[in-house]
Each structure stands twice: as C-alpha cells, then as structure tokens.
Amino acid sequence: MRPEVQRLTREQVGGIVKMLSLTTDREFNCGECLQHVSEFAECQLVSQPVGEVIAKVEQHLALCPECREEYEALMKILKAGQ
Amino acid sequence: MTQNEINWPAALRATDSGEQAAAVRALHDVLHTGLRIALTGRSEVSEAHLEDFAQESLLRVLDRLDQFQGRSKFTTWAQAIALNVAFTELRRKRWQDVSLDALMADGEQMTEPTMIADDALGAEEDRTRLVATLRHAIENDLTPKQRAAMLGELREMPFDQIVELLGTSRSAGYKMLHDARRALKQRLHAAGITGADIQNAFNL
C-alpha cells in the first residue's frame, strides 16, 4: 500500500466516510455554490425554508470547508447589518 | 438614498458618468465595510489588505454584473464575491510554499481516533472492515490525481492550491473529487457496506 494511504489516520478515514455519506450524484461545485450562496444566506437569516435548488448549497457547504468559511463570514456581515 | 433603495445594476451601468462613478464609490464602501466586519481579528489582514481586497472585489463584481439574477439583494451577492476574493488570497498566501508532494510525505503519526464512537456494540468490527475496504479502494480505484487531491483536501490544503498543483481548473478539480467520492461510495456498496453500517461504525 502506498505510504500516503497507509499513513491516513483513522480520523481522516472518518472524514472521508463522512464526505461519502453526503455525496450525491448531482452536486453543486464551488462556482455554482457561489452563484446561489447569497440567496441561501438570506433565507437562513430569516429562517425561511429553501427550495430544492438552494438546498444544494447546504449540501455543498457540508462538504466544502472553504465555501463554508466564506458562507459563515457572509452571515457575520448580514447579521451585523440587521 | 439608502443601499436598499439603490438599483445597483442600473446605477453601475449608468450612461451618466457621474451617476456611475457615485455608484462605484458606494459599492466600494459597502464591500470595504463588509470585509472589515468579516476579517476583523485576523492579525494577517492589514488596512492595506482590506483596501486591496475591496478594489479587487469591486472589479470582479463589475465584471460579473450580467450574472446577477436578482434572487438575493445585490449587496449580499456582491459581498459573497468579495469574500471569495479575500479568502482565496489569504489561503493562497498561507499555503504558497507547500507542495502537494511535501504535504503527502509529511511524517504524520497515526493517531487515536477521536471522532469514532466506541460505545456501539459490535461497531469496532464494522469500522475495521470499513476502514480496510476504504483504504483498498483509495489505493486501487482512484487515479493518482484523484488520490492526491483527496489526500490534499484531508490535510486541509486549500482547493485552489490543490488544483493549481495538479494543473487543472477549479471546476475540473471539483468534478475529479466528486467522481472519486462516488467511486469510493460504489466500492463500499459493492462490498455490502450500507449507509446504516457507516452511520453505526462512525457515529454519524
């Protein structure tokens, strides 16, 4: 087995498993997430349910730490403006 | 006129150069203020950085004006773009001297599992089988690029840095990782490991 695979910690394997449990056939990529994240954030701000398309933003945010970091920063701005 | 009352796309496209310049200045201020709120407390971000991010974001927003579809407030849409610009640059700086090879060859020690449930009866056997199947699949079912991208991501390397090192685009890189995850998922299913097994073994 390749060293880099052998060296995977069980915590990292757990991370992969979590990613797999969230994986679906059709997902947003980061660009698509960015296109829709503002709409998703505004819905979240007022606890409004989101439609099927926007729900894909939530699924992408669960998988992508970078988009999640940007989303959380966006929520910080929106909350500051309330 | 307040921010919410401005028809931003129209003002930014105004043929009256005075009106357009005023809208551009106002948008700059909105972006700058938002970035300050979002990035406050980060020691690596100076006033000069904030101004650079605001300027670059402004140009990006103006360049993408046609992509705004009015499904959110214009300022929320523009702030999302500004944050993407700023965070992408901050991540690039943090990781600029790290290669993917170096990242994969680090001397990381095996650690005890911290997120794995130990209280589920019979779960240890499930975990052992699942982990062995997964390691085998990562080794044998993924392409070298897929494996490198996944390992880089697990080590929290920024995705932009990964795709740059792999010589691919962001969208192609995301598809590559998505295909890798689907391949691993199919392998687990083929081995008779169900979603319930995974949830039980890893307490998800």
Give an overview of the whole structure.
The complex is a heterodimer of chains A (82) and B (204). Chain A is elongated and about 50 Å long. The mean pLDDT of chain A is 88. Chain A has one domain. Chain A has helices at 3-6, 10-22, 30-45, 52-63, 65-80. Chain A has five helices and no strands. Chain A is an all-alpha fold. Chain B has 204 residues and is mainly α. Chain B is elongated and about 70 Å long.
How is the secondary structure organized here?
The complex is a heterodimer of chains A (82) and B (204).
Chain A: H1 3-6, H2 10-22, H3 30-45, H4 52-63, H5 65-80
Helix pairs in contact in A: 3-4, 3-5, 4-5
Chain B: H1 8-12, H2 17-39, H3 47-63, H4 74-95, H5 100-104, H6 123-140, H7 144-154, H8 159-166, H9 170-190, H10 195-202
Helix pairs in contact in B: 2-3, 2-4, 3-4, 6-9, 6-10, 7-8, 7-9
Instruction: Please report the distance between the alpha carbons of the first and last residues of chain B.
Output: 50 Å
Q: What is the succession of H and E elements of chain A? A: HHHHH
Give the ordered list of helices and strands of chain B. Answer: HHHHHHHHHH
> CATH homologous superfamily of the largest domain in chain B?
RNA polymerase sigma factor, region 2, helix turn helix motif
Mean pLDDT of chain B: 83
* Tally of strands of chain B: 0
Shape of chain A: elongated
Largest interface: A-B, 46 and 58 residues
Report the sheet with the most strands of chain B, covering strand number, pairing sense and barrel closure. none
Helix fraction bin of chain A: over 70%
Unreliable sequence segments of chain B:
106-121
Number of helices of chain A: 5
Beta-strand level of the residues of chain B, as a percent range? under 5%
- The share of residues in extended strands of chain A comes to under 5%
Largest sheet of chain A: none
Termini Cα gap of chain A: 54 Å
Count of domains of chain A: 1
Secondary structure: number of strands of chain A? 0
**SS-based class of chain B:** mainly alpha
